[in-house]
Amino acid sequence: MTIVASDAIALSPGSSEPGIGPLLRRWREQRRLSQMELALRADSSARHISFIETGRSRPSEEMVLRLAEHLDVPVRERNALLLSAGYAPHYSETPLTDPSMGTLRTAMERLIKGYEPYPALVVDALYNVVAANRGIMMFLEDVPKHMLAAPLNVMRLSLHPQGLAPRILNLREWRHHLLAQMDRQIALQRSSELRALYEEVAAYPVPDAPDHADSELDEPVAYFALPMRIAHDGHALSFISSISTFNTPMDVTVAELAIETFLPADAATVKYLQTTDM
Asked: From what superkingdom does this record's organism come (predicted)?
């Protein structure tokens, strides 16, 4: 099964900033770099960096992109830096539904379909689901329809008391992991919408751990990473999640996509998935 949701979400633009100086200084301070450290990385001088930040010097387009690269500025915000310096955006933002994205859509769909019966999905920068395979449907059983309305949001679905939260056996640990993941992402980019989502899901009440039937899957297991343990049809299934992004993206939409796969964390979960008709 494939779910196609909304196109890339517009994050806080930052185009209202007075100039590149304050923006550059903000990113440098956020990365905890001195002017000298940034200068050494970007093959420049601390004096030139200082002049840019104070507005005494206008950097070239190439210098803006070089500084953005060494500051690990998200692609969307690199466009904002260029605009603040008086240059045109360097990175396009193509809707995922555009015909030119057909090859990318097909490749992602093949990738997550090939991962079945294990769950896999693709999300955008706000954790809205762009595509999902049949393995994900196992998680959605018994979830109220209003929780599945488009755009389907992974964070809301996972942490809402009417979503998956009552079925996640180690909810407090998994909740802490998800919130920490969002917090790290917020630190990397200026997104008021992501911050609002974080504050919303962090405020959800935490339901008690659910009761579930004993099964062979409940035997003690030494996990190699924090699993998501979720109840399904009287069984306790365990998954380790992995997130992949595209290297050196040249489009904002592509830069903000992430492919999340759920790897069974024990042999019993593997056996269960391979013998269950989903």
From this structure: Bacteria
Global confidence as pTM: 0.81
pLDDT at residue 277, rounded to an integer: 67
The list of the chain residues with pLDDT below 50 reads 1-17, 212-217
For residue range 228-258, what is the model confidence (pLDDT) as tens digits?
Answer: 999 998 889 999 999 999 988 999 999 999 9
Q: Tell me how far apart the alpha carbons of residues 135 and 250 are, in angstroms, rounded to a whole number.
A: 31
Chain segment 181-207, per-residue pLDDT in tens: 999 988 877 788 999 999 999 999 987
Measured distance between the N- and C-terminal CA atoms of the chain, rounded to whole angstroms: 11
Give the CATH number of domain 99-275; options: 1.10.8.10, 3.30.450.180, 3.30.70.60, 3.10.20.600: 3.30.450.180
Cβ density class 141-163: b for 16+ within 10 Å, e for less: eebeeeeeeebbbbbbbbbbeeb
Task: Transcribe 103-143 into DSSP letters.
Answer: HHHHHHHHHHHHTTTS-EEEE-TT-BEEEE-HHHHHHHTT-
CATH topology for the 20-84 domain? 434 Repressor (Amino-terminal Domain) (1.10.260)
- Cα distance between residue 189 and residue 233, in whole Å: 40
Backbone angles phi, psi at 263, to 5 degrees: -95, 125
Task: Break the chain into its structural domains and give their ranges.
Answer: 20-84, 99-275
Tokens of 65: 């992109």
pLDDT at 225: 82
Closest by alpha carbon to 231, among 124, 146, 141? 141
Tokens of 169: 């056996």
Left if phi > 0, otherwise alpha if psi is -120 to 50, otherwise beta: which for 87?
beta
